Write the structure tokens for this entry.
Amino acid sequence: MTTYGDYTNQPFAVRRVDTSAPSWPLATHPDGSPNPGGIPEWLKNHRELKRRGVELVATLKPSFVFCTDIGNETIPAFAVKLMEADTEEAAIYRRLAQDPKPANHTVPFEIIDNEEPSLLVMPFLVSLGLAVTFASPLSRLLGVFIQVVEGVEYLHSQRIVHLDVCYSNTLFAFEINSALDERVVAGRVYIIDFHSSKQLSLGPGVQTAIPLPPTQVLPPLNMTHFDPYSWDVYCLGDVWRHIVNAKYYDGTPPPAITHWITRWVKGEERGCTTVCHCRPTARRVRQVLSVVWWVVHAGERCSQILDDTLIFLKLRPAREPEMTPAFT
């Protein structure tokens, strides 16, 4: 049985260590010993999955997330997550599905809950790494990141905190994904994994620190309590850092502004235990970076016009066409 490891198999994220055992029967070897990378027989033969034609063949996160064949580009591929009953994950997904605004970057999904555990069925998408590797202009990197920020800002407007925003919990849809599944929008970023998420009664700027769950991003100052809205923004800074690393993996020095964005978004943590003001809100990050995007994009367009003029005058050789994914 194939095991892809983490949902997106990205080398940058700090892996969460979750020692809790799920309540459902796990996969075993023929001799009865545990098989962490296997698919439980009861899940393979799940009646509702079979009725939908969802045949699981690989493990993405042992005991929790599985997928269908991702090598066949003629049929949609799906990921199936087993959701624990003592979390708010299913309730949050259902709530978000009721408000399909453009700012809502929740992945399309279906919940099967006729028996325990509930199953979350969603299209299989790739992580941001593959998208930003091809995104040569800085404006494209900013455009991808602004979508992530927009998604977190929307969650905060609904008084939902993700609490595990990270590089591997943000996915990207290509044109082939959209062609195979009409619910998917090419060029769009999607946010997944609400296992640790909470619905709060207080919004940003009012909510004080709460205990942090296990997370993939390491908290600063070894903090165990954090303003949850501010924590999500801190984690956004880490997402941006990984986006930049994925783009400039070959050792090319990133533009100086990329470092400023990381420092500004992550802020300088002072160990706040009440409402945190160490960094901007998600809304402020989106607003500022949208302006930065326009400035960067304008500069790139001017540079392109100059290059095209020099090529037209035969003062510079023509450039090789670039392979870039679809972006919105």
About this structure: Confidence is low (pLDDT under 50) at residues 1-16. The CA atoms of residues 18 and 69 lie 27 Å apart. The chain has nine helices and 13 strands. The longest helix spans residues 282-312.
